[in-house]
Amino acid sequence: MLDRFHTPVRTEFSKLSRRMSRSFALFVLLFPMACSTTTTANSGQLTVIAEHGLMAELGETSGLICSADAQYTIADSGNSPTLYRIDDDGVIIESVDVANKNHDWESVTADDKYFYIGDFGNNAGKRKELLIHKVNRGDLTHDSLITFTYDNYDPKNNQLYAHDFDAEAMVARSDKLVLFSKSWLTKTLHVYHLDKQAAEQQIAPVIAIEGLPGIVTGADWDPFHNRYVVVGYNSSAFGIVDPFIAFLSEDYNLMDSFTLTGYGQVEGLCVKSEDEIWLTQENSPFSIAKLIKIKIASLAKSEAQ
Predict the structure, then answer these.
(1) Alpha carbons 194 and 203: distance in angstroms, whole number
(2) Which partner from 72, 94, 103, 185 sits 20 to 30 angstroms from 88, CA to CA?
């Protein structure tokens, strides 16, 4: 597998300029809210045990996988179609281009045979082609595409950041892919199931979840406690506020949620061990992109058992 990776290089000046412009615009919107933020965990049940700055290539990290030997991440729209392998400190070990294009990669998950990379970012609600790339884990060659659309999806009726046909979180579980909506309009989390084998699919929600404190941007299955873990943030017309982490039961009941005070656009999440969850955060005017390691207290663990 390592033979197909190439040595990491720094991003081009044009990419850095684009990120700085985007960050400055966000800074103008969020400055009044940013003055009082502090980097703390919530009420002792979740404790931040480490933070590591990420390289410039990962300034727009948008997904995270934990495995026994390393972690894997991707970057979102405007970046290269690259799968990055990173060590426990967030340093890029190797990277490989696994597709021809990155329209808006927003999630990566895996099973024993494949990586699944979700090119389905749809903030404006106008995309006509939503994709999932299947990449062989053995040699990192592109295997096939899954294309899908949503029931009742009509792009002409959607407005930017004002619809529910977006997604940034996907989990491979048994014979299906579990897709969690990024519901800008209603804040109701819709859960979809996709067949790992079917090349073309039309999907409808299997359940709707109320009560989350914001929109969902990352997810993973916790095999130690038989639950889903999701991460996201509260969103308003002025930008990003109040990131959170939440726990869902195996049948998608909301168990609990906790704020992640002082953090920003947290988009990648993986369950590293029985009592550790790792996150990645995009860069912002207030913070660099980070790998964040969180320890779960016994109370948060026992609620899932």
Answers:
(1) 7
(2) 103
Place of tokens 């909506």: 181
Determine the Cα–Cα distance for residues 78 and 101; give it in Å rounded to an integer.
9
- Residues 255, 201: Cα–Cα separation, whole Å: 30
Task: Specify the DSSP class assigned to residue 136.
Answer: E
Residue 190 tokens, joined: 């819709």
> What pLDDT was estimated at residue 304?
56
The span from the CA of 107 to the CA of 110, in Å, is 10
**pLDDT at 297 (0 to 100):** 84
Query: Helix, strand, or coil here: 15?
Result: helix
Q: What are phi and psi of 2, to 5 degrees?
A: -70, -20
CATH class of the domain at 2-302: mainly beta
Residues lower than pLDDT 50 in the chain: 1-3, 6-40, 42
Cα separation of 54 and 225, whole Å?
29
Q: Which residue in the block uniquely carries the two structure tokens 């506020």?
A: 241
List helix spans (H) across the chain: 13-34, 298-302
- For residue 104, the number of C-alpha atoms closer than 13 Å in the C-beta half-sphere is 15
CB 85, CB 121: distance < 8 Å: no
Cβ 199 vs Cβ 184: under 8 Å:
no
